[in-house]
Amino acid sequence: MDLIPGVGAGTLLESQLLAPDRAQRIGAIQRLDYHEAVVLTHDTWKFDAGGIPQFAFLLATARDVTAEGNDDDEVLLLRVEGTAPLSLEADLHAVREEALRDALSRHRDASPSVVLDVDLDPFTRNRASFTGLRCRILGTFYEDDLDGTRRLEFGADVDNFYATATYRVLKPVGEGLSTIASYLKPSPHPVEQVRIGSVRYSATRRRALAAKQADAAVAVNIHDFIGHKTGLLGMTRTGKSNTAKIIVARTFLVSAQRKASGQPPIGQLIFDPQGEYANDNTQDGTAIAAIGDRHVRIYRFGAGGEQAHVRPLGINFFDPAQIEAVQSMIAEQLRTDGNSGYVRDFAGTEFGDVDGDRRRTAHAQRGRLLLYAALLRAGFTAPQHNPGSTNPYSIVLPIKSELRDAITNQAGQSPFRLIGNSGMCAVAGNQIQTLVDAILALRDAGAQPAVEFCDNPIWQATEPIYTASSGGRQVRGWRNLNDLRPYHNPDTAADVADEIYRNLCYGLIVIVDLHIGTPAVIATLSEAITRRLLKHQTTAFTSGQEPPSIQVMLEEAHNLFSTKKYGDDGDVWVKLAKEAAKLRIGMLYATQEVSGVAHQVKANTANWVVAHLNNRTELNELSKFYDFGSFADAILSSEDRGYVRLKTLSSPFIVPVQIEKYDANLVNQARAAAGDPPLAAGHG
């Protein structure tokens, strides 16, 4: 007799899903349509199968449906949603109720044992032990040939069904359950499955543990996360960061393998507002940084260079080579004055020299002179030396002799050091404000050389910052720059944003440790780094090159991708969200406010990791995507750390998962892929 009716022995369906060690019979189909099934089961079968919790996967397979004995080789995948009434259940309830009434009436002490020991005959007791399970039909497993290879396929619907008496229902366990939970849709993209956790149907796991059914592995295709958006959704302390670390470590492993085979690696940029990725913590016992100094760069305020892989976070505001980052940060800071004309003018100005255009370069040099004077007025410390040299700090720009003479007379002394006969002048750092004050005084007095010197758009866009006056009204101007002083490092010889990008191109993990610093400083610096990343990736894309693969990890995404902000194309985070895919930038974003993230971002999210959420507003928003609405009550009630509902790009359905812990073992796997020895015993 065929033990698995409807499936021929030796088929993939039988060997991978329905073999005796992979599935246990728990009942039959009582009612079936294209979307829902009612499964008839019995208390004994449920007990023998280790229980049937809500959201459990079930398999339904048909009998021989023809007289000739041909099998219908497909298996329906069901998910238990709740209970369902059976046709005769009302009568059985009446019998059960009468027996309970009788037991309670005949005993004054209605102890639990008395109530349970109701006077039912064995036949009735057995009939009352049948219950119905309301199940959603997730789709159909079947077999197909792919280039001559037989493989398991899945369709997310039902293309036919038979009389319900022909179906038997089984509960997948062990490797059978793992096959279902780890199933990937066929894809032309690379596939590398890695374990991320185990199937967990419910918060209560007593029966699953007792039946040794609590460790069915869930594997994902790590390439689903590379170059795509991933949402890590859930309350604080529910395991989002742990999941992110697993993804980062697994992505590094792929990157190391690519690098070893001569392929371009994958860089990863982590904005770390709490310092939990850069530093060991009691939760994980280790950190991303443990992957190794050769592979991880940490940028931190106040870093002093004692460790080669820990770099200072800050820029030299007086370095012409870093002027783009300086302008970006100042422009963002000036927004506190609102959308004033001078703010827009400054943001749209180019302060860099232009090769082959002496006039444009001269205007840029004048603009930088005025900007550096504003920085000094705001209390910034000028460097002791010019970047990359031991010469005392000074700036160089061309000034005509008529204006030099007028300035010398105005200031009472010459602030210049002439450089040959070129008309170029060096101005020491402690003379910059004196020079600018003299030029403005001469301009206001109508001195023609000074009028001509100031008559260019770069000077005019910068002057309101220094004078704190725009269009005849007072503005905050240079006072806005006070909050930027913590960013300033006069000893930094290179733009930190460019340095970070070079590290990303080399396949390193870059952690920007932001747990020290004010929110305004953290936000502005993060935006400057991201803006530079987008610029470099866009330059590569528009020049016909393949941009390098880069992953970006962001916390508190509801503050970055709100619906209100999403309409602002000038916002760097909005630009990142909109253009990440075409620029080969993958994005992991974490938030506890699903409703706070713009719908457009969520609609383009490929991977969903959903932990505990504590209110209906967020659950209602989540329920708009896939069939997360089915899990809403469980997500609301279960606060277990690492217990998530997972939907990935390659998975055709949501899987309830207990995410494994990020630990030294995973770190050592990443280190091994890069050719490094394991961590020393006792590390982390």
Topology diagram in text:
Blueprint: H1 12-18, E1 23-32, E2 36-42, H2 43-48, E3 57-62, E4 74-84, H3 89-106, H4 112-116, H5 122-128, E5 130-146, E6 149-155, E7 167-172, H6 174-181, E8 193-199, H7 206-210, E9 217-221, E10 229-233, H8 240-260, E11 266-272, E12 296-300, E13 310-312, H9 323-334, H10 341-347, H11 358-377, E14 394-398, H12 401-411, E15 416-419, E16 424-428, H13 432-444, H14 448-454, H15 457-467, E17 469-470, E18 473-474, H16 496-505, E19 509-513, H17 519-542, E20 549-554, H18 563-566, H19 572-579, E21 585-591, H20 599-603, E22 607-610, H21 616-622, H22 632-637, E23 643-647, E24 655-659, H23 664-673
Parallel strand pairs: 10-21, 10-22, 11-19, 11-20, 12-13, 12-19, 20-21
Antiparallel strand pairs: 1-2, 1-7, 2-5, 3-4, 3-7, 4-5, 5-6, 8-9, 8-24, 14-16, 15-16, 17-18, 22-23, 23-24
Task: Give an account of the 3D structure.
The protein has 684 residues and is an alpha/beta fold. The chain has three domains: 12-181, no CATH class; 222-312 and 495-673, Rossmann fold (3-Layer(aba) Sandwich), CATH 3.40.50.300; 320-487, no CATH class. The protein is built from 23 helices and 24 strands. The strands form four sheets. It has a twelve-stranded mixed sheet, with helices on both faces. Strands 1-2-5-4-3-7 form a six-stranded antiparallel barrel. The two termini are 57 Å apart.
